[in-house]
Structures are given as structure tokens and as C-alpha cells.
From TrEMBL:
TM ranges: 33-52, 58-77, 89-111, 117-138, 150-170, 237-255
Protein name: Uncharacterized protein
Species of provenance: Bifidobacterium tissieri
InterPro entries for the chain: YjdF-like
Keywords: Membrane, Transmembrane, Transmembrane helix
Pfam families: DUF2238
């Protein structure tokens, strides 16, 4: 019983430290904090609206969004990296645009380019995260890990593309197992396939100018053939490629010209926290000092 109480007390103490450090992290940059507060208020308002509309699935999405808005601060705390304000704002806006605007407000349907923009941003942000992780190892005093700027950019690019591919795996699994439509369909007007070869050989047969498709005798009314997710998946990967490539080039230039000041690059590349910015360590040290001070006071009281 005593061990359980000690464990519970330790967890509460750790959680209290993380909350205090998160508050400091969130308030560090005025611009990103203002964006965070604004988006948080909008998400809470949307959650209340969806609750009264009886759409509890969207309420869950709002709760998920509130947690995801904390992700940049949490990443900075745990990895001890400093995200520039510009990059942090991009991450916050990305989360809001994907969940609240994209899913709940149906921007994916209202604006066909919405998904493309977000996947491009995803490639960019994933490359930034991959770059920062490897760059920190590259500059670590305790880890023997040295990569040239070109290899560092390549690893960053590959990390981003891997994230993009894994996400497409997730979309495919959701569609296959739960009957969702995460891999959006596209209406096409021509198809080519060896399965249409009447001789069952390997000859490609094409059907051009498709304007009508019927399923079980019912006209789909789409004005063409329905491509099931393939084009959407490839477009997502292509724009992810573009986003990853752009940041990889930025990262390459940053490492290549390290030491030179470049406002654009500096505003996008994460870096290691200084001791003063490592708020988790600061809070832990303050707590340790208070504990030590309390112990000293207790000893003095006993001596009296």
C-alpha cells in the first residue's frame, strides 16, 4: 500500500512539473502563444457548438485538436529543442486546418486544393522534425555521429517521405477495415488495364471518353469512371515529396553555411535549447532546491 502511495505521489509530482514547464514553454514566444490561444478558443467554441448539435464525433475531434495544439510545446520540452516561432505557428495552423477546417467544416470538399496544401505542409514539417533530430545528434558531444550537409538533408528528406508513406498506409487501412473514405476518389474519363483483355493475356486495353458508368444497372451520375483512391494517394505523396524537398534544401543550406546569419533559414530550422530555455530542467532544479531547503529546515528544527 505504501509503495502504491509513493508511486502515485511520484506521478502527480512529475505531472505537476510537466504542466509548469508546458506553461512556460507556451508563453515563451508572444506570437506563437497568441496564435495558440486564438486557435484554442476557436476549437473550444466549435466543440460547444458540435455538442449542442449532437455531433459527438466532431466533439471528439475537437478534443483531439486541443491535445494536438500542445504537441509543439511538448516536443520542445521532451526533445530539448527550440522551434522558431514561424515554424511553431505553421504547426499550429496545420493542426487547426486539418482537423477543424478540413474535417468538421468540410474544407476538403469545399476546396479541392485543401488536402494538397496540407500534405505539402506535412512533408515540410516532417522534414523539419527529421532534420532537427539528426542535426542534434550530429552536434552532440556525447554521440559520435557526423553527417555531411548533403547526407543530413537526405536523411531529413527520407524521414519525411517515410512519414508520408506510413500515413497513406493508415488511410488505406481505415478505408479497408472500417469502410471510410480517407483516400478520396477521383472521376477519370479513361482507363487502361490488362484485365480488360478478352484473351486474358498481357495486352493493355484502353477505354477512352468515359462519360457514364453503371453499377448493378444504376447510373452513378458522375460523368466518368470512379478511381478508388489511387490518384489521391499519388498526389499526396508527390506534394509530400515537394514539401520534404524544399525543407531538405533549406536544411542543407543551413548546415552548409552554419555560423552565417540567414533570417529565413533561422526562422525555420529547430535548434538545441540553451540552459535557460530548457524549462523542464529549470522546473526540476527549482523543485529539487525547494525539497533540499525543506529538508534543511526540518533538520534545524530537530536540532533545536
Amino acid at each position: 500500500m505504501g509503495n502504491n502511495r509513493n508511486a502515485s505521489s511520484s506521478v502527480r509530482h512529475r505531472w505537476r512539473i510537466i504542466r509548469q514547464a508546458m506553461r512556460m514553454e507556451l508563453r515563451e514566444h508572444k506570437v506563437s502563444f497568441a496564435v495558440y490561444v486564438t486557435l484554442r478558443v476557436l476549437v473550444i467554441a466549435m466543440a460547444i457548438l458540435q455538442f449542442f448539435n449532437g455531433d459527438y464525433e466532431n466533439v471528439f475531434l475537437c478534443v483531439l485538436t486541443l491535445l494536438l495544439l500542445l504537441a509543439p510545446a511538448f516536443i520542445q520540452l521532451q526533445l530539448r529543442i527550440e522551434l522558431p516561432s514561424v515554424l511553431e505557428v505553421i504547426m499550429l495552423v496545420f493542426v487547426f486546418s486539418a482537423e477543424i477546417l478540413g474535417e468538421i467544416s468540410a474544407f476538403y470538399e469545399l476546396f479541392p486544393f485543401w488536402d494538397t496544401v496540407l500534405h505539402t505542409l506535412n512533408g515540410f514539417l516532417a522534414a523539419a522534425i527529421g532534420f532537427s533530430l539528426v542535426d542534434l545528434l550530429n552536434r552532440s558531444d556525447t554521440t559520435k555521429f557526423e553527417l555531411s550537409p548533403a547526407y543530413l538533408a537526405l536523411v531529413s528528406f527520407c524521414f519525411s517521405m517515410t512519414i508520408g508513406v506510413v500515413w497513406e498506409f493508415f488511410e488505406f487501412a481505415m478505408d479497408l477495415l472500417f469502410g471510410l473514405d480517407m483516400q478520396k476518389d477521383t472521376v477519370v474519363h479513361s482507363i487502361s488495364s490488362v484485365m480488360l483483355d478478352p484473351s486474358h493475356g498481357n495486352r493493355i486495353v484502353s477505354i477512352p471518353d468515359i462519360t457514364q458508368v453503371s453499377v448493378n444497372g444504376n447510373d452513378l451520375g458522375l460523368g466518368g469512371y470512379l478511381d478508388i483512391g489511387l490518384i489521391d494517394t499519388m498526389e499526396d505523396l508527390i506534394v509530400n515529396f515537394i514539401g520534404a524537398l524544399v525543407f531538405s534544401i533549406i536544411g542543407f543550406l543551413y548546415v552548409k553555411n552554419r555560423g552565417r546569419r540567414d533570417a529565413i533559414v533561422d526562422s525555420l530550422v529547430p535548434r538545441r535549447k540553451t540552459a535557460a530555455q530548457d524549462y523542464l530542467r529549470v522546473i526540476i532544479e527549482q523543485a529539487d532546491k525547494r525539497t533540499a531547503s525543506s529538508a534543511d529546515d526540518g533538520e534545524r528544527d530537530r536540532d533545536r
